[in-house]
Design brief:
This protein is α+β, with helices and mostly antiparallel strands. It is 31% helix and 29% strand. It contains 14 helices and 23 strands. The protein has helices at residues 10-20, 51-61, 71-75, 78-84, 98-101, 103-112, 126-136, 159-170, 238-258, 291-298, 303-312, 350-354, 390-401, 417-421; strands spanning 2-7, 27-32, 42-43, 65-68, 89-90, 120-123, 140-144, 153-156, 181-185, 190-199, 203-211, 214-216, 220-223, 228-231, 264-274, 277-284, 326-334, 346-347, 359-363, 366-369, 372-375, 379-387, 409-410. The strands form five sheets. Strands 10, 11, 14, 15, 16, 17, 19, 22 and 23 form a nine-stranded antiparallel sheet that branches. Helix 1 links the parallel strand 1 and strand 2. Helix 1 (10-20) packs parallel to helix 10 (291-298) and helix 7 runs antiparallel to helix 8 (159-170). It starts with a strand and ends with a helix. 49% of the residues are buried. The structure holds adenosine monophosphate. Adenosine monophosphate is lined by residues 118, 141, 153, 155, 184-187, 191, 213, 270, 281-282.
Length: 424
């Protein structure tokens, strides 16, 4: 098969690495890719937002499957356009991608199908929103309805913080994403990332993971796209996985099919494991970043037949196999991230780091120039390792981190600590 992967981050490097290992793959392209992905795939300068150009490329190169990494092209309907042109594409249609594109849409499905989630209301004007917040009291969570690149959620400790968030969103601080606002109950528990492969009617659970969203050790500082992750998540016991499938994922698939927008692709549920069981915080309509990096290390099965089975509606008797080992990834970011940071700084020592046992390094934001690797983004490298336990994977990943010479970069030193303290 000829496959085109869309995206340029660590998630896409991990997917490229896994797909390139498949005996079914003849030629793998990635648009636009990065310096690490270039080791697995031929990177092409195509803009995923230019659907006509992507279609023309697919026809020219006889692409058998397009794998879409990030959410923006999915919400923009790239799967609809590719399929209309007769090209197979993995991921939800624009209508089904509303599960990520509109928080209110997802909350209404939860209400209609009794899916456990935080209590909520939807608003289109500031005053009724503030009235509701005052009646509910703090802490309370204010969310922009639309896609806001991870900036659309404010967990307000006080009424004043909630009101400031409401004003910011309705004043256009997040563009059109904040034209509608969802206010929801503050949930208490432990978070987990849960992934399921879906074919429209059937869902197959993938492994679970936990990520670290805050930029500094001990969960200090602002939220980021994710500073590290590990898999499996100890909180996702078999019972919790079964409940999540039965109470959250399966009713969502029924709801989407009933409204004529069957969900195909990877469904990524952000969960809060509360004392009453799993509750849905939000859906994402694609693989997580950096969770995918640890999932790909643990996946024993060939991923390509799994993607094809999901696309073709054939997951009913499909089985995926996983290594029992744990995997962990440490994100190395440019100093200043998630605020302003420098690009173009030199990274050395990657070859030595990659030789540490069990280690795999994925590039999240790099470019190559004259045979040198330069930083080219906020999150730059994912230093991953596999081990019998989370503790072992953590030890190997940090051993590799310590061999990387990049003075302008930084990472958290406590990825996986909670799991390690639990003996995982
Ligand atoms: P989201 O972008 O919806 O995943 O939200 C970002 C983060 O905000 C989540 O990972 C949680 O840590 C937190 N969060 C979102 N909704 C809630 C909620 N209802 N209760 C508590 N924390 C929440």
């Amino acid at each position: 098969m000829n496959i085109l992967l869309l995206g340029s981050g660590g998630r896409e490097h991990a997917l490229a690495w896994k797909m390139a290992a498949s005996p079914l793959v003849e030629k793998l392209y990635c648009a636009p890719g990065n310096a690490g992905i270039a080791q697995e795939a031929e990177c092409v300068a195509l803009d995923p937002a230019d659907h006509a150009a992507v279609i023309a490329f697919c026809k020219d190169k006889k692409i058998d499957l397009v794998m879409v990494g990030p959410e923006a092209p999915l919400c923009a309907g790239i799967v609809d356009d590719l399929e209309a042109a007769g090209i197979k594409a993995f991921g939800p249609t624009r209508a089904a991608a509303q599960l990520e594109g509109s928080k209110g849409f997802t909350k209404d499905i939860c209400r209609a199908y009794n899916i456990p989630t935080a209590a909520y209301e939807r608003f289109t004007a500031p005053q009724p929103t503030k009235d509701y917040v005052r009646r509910q009291g703090a802490p309370i969570v204010v969310k922009a309805d639309g896609l806001a690149a991870g900036k659309g959620v404010v967990v307000a400790e006080t009424i004043e913080q909630a009101e400031a968030a409401i004003d910011m969103m309705f004043d256009g601080g997040l563009g059109s994403a904040g034209a509608e606002v969802v206010v929801e109950e503050f949930l208490v528990g432990e978070e987990a990332s849960f992934f399921a492969l879906c074919d429209g009617t059937t869902a197959v659970p993938l492994a679970s993971a936990q990520d670290h969203k805050r930029v500094f050790d001990n969960d200090q500082g602002p939220n980021t796209g994710g500073m590290g992750a590990y898999s499996p998540a100890p909180v996702m016991t078999d019972e919790m996985t079964q409940r999540t499938m039965r109470e959250i994922i399966e009713p969502t698939l029924r709801a989407m099919a009933a409204m004529g927008a069957p969900y195909k692709g990877v469904l990524f549920a952000g969960l809060m494991i509360t004392k009453d069981g799993p509750k849905l915080i939000e859906y994402n309509v694609r693989f997580g970043d950096p969770e995918t990096q640890v999932l790909m290390l643990r996946m024993m099965s060939d991923i390509v037949p799994a993607l094809m089975a999901a696309h073709d509606g054939m997951l009913k008797n499909f089985d995926l196999r996983w290594y029992p080992d744990a995997a962990l990834t440490v994100v190395m970011a440019a100093k200043g991230y998630p605020g302003d940071y420098q690009k173009g700084t030199l990274i050395e020592g990657l070859d030595d780091a990659a030789k540490v046992e069990g280690v795999q390094i994925f590039h999240a934001g790099t470019k190559s120039a004259d045979g040198k690797i330069l930083a080219n983004g906020g999150r730059v490298l994912n230093v991953c390792a596999i081990g019998r336990t989370v503790a072992e994977a953590q030890k190997q990943a940090y051993a590799a981190v310590d061999l990387i010479r990049w003075p302008e970069g930084f990472c958290r030193r406590d990825i996986g600590r909670r799991a390690v303290e639990r003996g995982a």
